[in-house]
């Protein structure tokens, strides 16, 4: 398995993904222990910026790797689950978001793994996943930094939830089409 990723572990984009993973405990510590919400927000913004920069470097300098297609979303999801879990104690509606986020990531992960097994291709993130991630980072940063009524907070959480659901549906459609197309090709070869 690791032979497939030989030479891919220490590219600049992948190192930036590791930085995002390393930031996760610091986000929890600054939010839950220190109650330094601006610091937590700054760490989340830093995490989001490293996500943007690693994607830019990977595409612009031809450093897209199969391992990067795996570690980058793992770093994103660890950050997202961490932030949502931290904010769940402040905003009750966040528990719905946690459930949807966990379901989405498990479902999309399983579908992506099925595509990998059938096609031997690691399918990277798509624009709708990136948009949902950007919306997530913006909304979570606002919820961390600004005091607001529960109604406004719930509206923002709902917008984030809608982005996740749209992303889930579009990934499901994409992976279903890839799998169906592969099965049709296999059936033609067998016949």
Summarize the structure in words:
By secondary structure, this protein is mostly helical. The protein contains six helices and no strands. The chain has helices at residues 12-33, 37-60, 66-87, 94-119, 127-145, 150-190. 30% of the residues are buried. The mean pLDDT is 88.
Low-confidence stretches: none
Tell me the number of strands: 0
- Percent of residues in beta strands? under 5%
Structural class: mainly alpha
What sort of overall outline do the alpha carbons produce when their principal axes are compared? globular
Mean pLDDT: 88
- The radius of gyration over CA amounts to 18 Å
Count up the helices: 6
How do you describe this structure in short?
The protein is mostly helical.
Descriptive key words:
81% helix, 0% strand, mainly alpha, 6 helices, 191 residues
Write the layout of secondary structure elements.
Blueprint: H1 12-33, H2 37-60, H3 66-87, H4 94-119, H5 127-145, H6 150-190
């Amino acid at each position: 398995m690791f032979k497939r990723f030989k030479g891919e572990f220490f590219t600049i984009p992948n190192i930036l993904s590791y930085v995002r993973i390393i930031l996760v405990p610091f986000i929890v510590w600054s939010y839950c222990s220190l109650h330094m919400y601006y610091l937590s927000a700054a760490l989340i913004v830093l995490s989001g910026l490293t996500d943007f920069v690693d994607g830019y470097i990977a595409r612009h300098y031809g450093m897209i790797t199969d391992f990067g297609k795996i570690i980058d979303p793992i770093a994103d999801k660890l950050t997202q689950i961490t932030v949502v879990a931290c904010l769940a104690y402040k905003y009750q509606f966040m528990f719905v978001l946690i459930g949807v986020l966990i379901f989405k990531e498990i479902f999309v992960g399983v579908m992506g793994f099925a595509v990998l097994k059938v096609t031997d291709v690691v399918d990277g993130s798509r624009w709708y996943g990136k948009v949902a991630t950007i919306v997530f980072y913006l909304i979570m940063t606002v919820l961390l930094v600004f005091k607001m009524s529960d109604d406004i907070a719930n509206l923002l959480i709902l917008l984030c939830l809608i982005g996740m659901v749209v992303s889930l549906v579009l990934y499901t459609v994409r992976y279903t089409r890839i799998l169906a197309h592969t099965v049709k090709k296999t059936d033609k070869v067998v016949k």
